[in-house]
Amino acid sequence: MAQTGDAEIPKTCKAGVVVNEGPDFKLAVEDVPVPEPGPNDVLIKLNATGICYSDIHYMLNDLPIPKMSVFGVRSPGHEGAGVVVKVGSNVTNWKVGDRAGIKPAYDACFDCELCWSGKETYCPQSPQIGLQFPGSYQQYVLSPARYTQRIPEGVDDFVAGPIMCSGSTIYSSIKESGLKPGDWAVFPGAGGGVGHMGVQLARAMGMRVVGVDGGDDKKELCMKLGCEAFVDFTKVTDVAAEVVKICDGKGAHGIFITATSASAYKTAPMMARIGGKVMCIGLPPPGDGFGEANPLLFIGKNLHMIGTKVGSLLDTQKALEFAARGLLKPIYEVFPLAKMPDAVAKLQAGKVAGRLVVDFNS
Ligand SMILES: [Zn+2]
Ligand SMILES: [Zn+2]
């Protein structure tokens, strides 16, 4: 028997849905059926969802992957936080009332080398929520009980939401970089949704942080969050040279490319010191790459190029613990549910410092 809470579960709920998927897509808020949990699922009532640029990629359908409609999905979203309102008949480790989060990976097989080594987000059987399954733009969503994220005390839903994707993604990259306390960490895109959390985490881990982004608002944000220096690409002609100068004249130990622009990828290798790590995180437009980066540079500087996807269950837990300790505070602007389309448009226009979060209860 499925266990249900006292609060009555409605038959329908509000959801942000994509209309006219593709280059001219629009987001609309509609009523959709509340799904019924399968035996191994929990049903989560979300209080908040972050808006991530990946959602926009999925709605634009500009990535070389199948579109949402192929899977019968209309709601993107993978940064949800809320509470369990119903559990499937086989579920024993969750109960109604537990706080729970939605992150990009929906599930994994837990029967392969990648899953066993904490790299389950790379498992070939790890589908994406908000692409292959209805995502967190829908207030009532399903999640496999074994892969649902617990939200610790002291982290509210507006903070937890953005950590599910951006916070956990950048935690994972910093961890894989192997950078040590005292090393220089540079964040192209430091004022953005992923970057501004990277700045805080790297600072909390004892690294020396340089932000690269454009404009005084982003500079102010970055310096407040713990950057030691900021390079404004709208003012400085040779950004890479400026970064090298700041980092002892030798370059950075790690460059965390959280920006999604082709130019960020082009200049990053030039910012590295010998043996530096070039960490690829932000998704650039299709077809862009390290275009002009000469292999001689990689050889001569012993560069390491490492790509990381979204964080694992453990990475997300760790990122949430930094938040619970007050060391990671996502900067966000809240939009009421009815204004979800405006939030999406604002992010698409690139006008966001920090993160946008939608409040399902207002
Ligand atoms: Zn995301
Ligand atoms: Zn697996």
Automatic annotation (TrEMBL):
<dbReference type="GO" id="GO:0004022">
    <property type="term" value="F:alcohol dehydrogenase (NAD+) activity"/>
</dbReference>
<comment type="similarity">
    <text>Belongs to the zinc-containing alcohol dehydrogenase family.</text>
</comment>
<keyword id="KW-0862">Zinc</keyword>
<feature type="domain" description="Enoyl reductase (ER)">
    <location>
        <begin position="22"/>
        <end position="358"/>
    </location>
</feature>
<dbReference type="Pfam" id="PF00107">
    <property type="entry name" value="ADH_zinc_N"/>
</dbReference>
<dbReference type="InterPro" id="IPR013149">
    <property type="entry name" value="ADH-like_C"/>
</dbReference>
<dbReference type="InterPro" id="IPR013154">
    <property type="entry name" value="ADH-like_N"/>
</dbReference>
<protein>
    <submittedName>
        <fullName>GroES-like protein</fullName>
    </submittedName>
</protein>
<dbReference type="InterPro" id="IPR011032">
    <property type="entry name" value="GroES-like_sf"/>
</dbReference>
<dbReference type="InterPro" id="IPR036291">
    <property type="entry name" value="NAD(P)-bd_dom_sf"/>
</dbReference>
<dbReference type="GO" id="GO:0008270">
    <property type="term" value="F:zinc ion binding"/>
</dbReference>
<keyword id="KW-0520">NAD</keyword>
<keyword id="KW-0560">Oxidoreductase</keyword>
<keyword id="KW-0479">Metal-binding</keyword>
<dbReference type="GO" id="GO:0005737">
    <property type="term" value="C:cytoplasm"/>
</dbReference>
<dbReference type="InterPro" id="IPR002328">
    <property type="entry name" value="ADH_Zn_CS"/>
</dbReference>
<dbReference type="InterPro" id="IPR020843">
    <property type="entry name" value="ER"/>
</dbReference>
<dbReference type="Pfam" id="PF08240">
    <property type="entry name" value="ADH_N"/>
</dbReference>
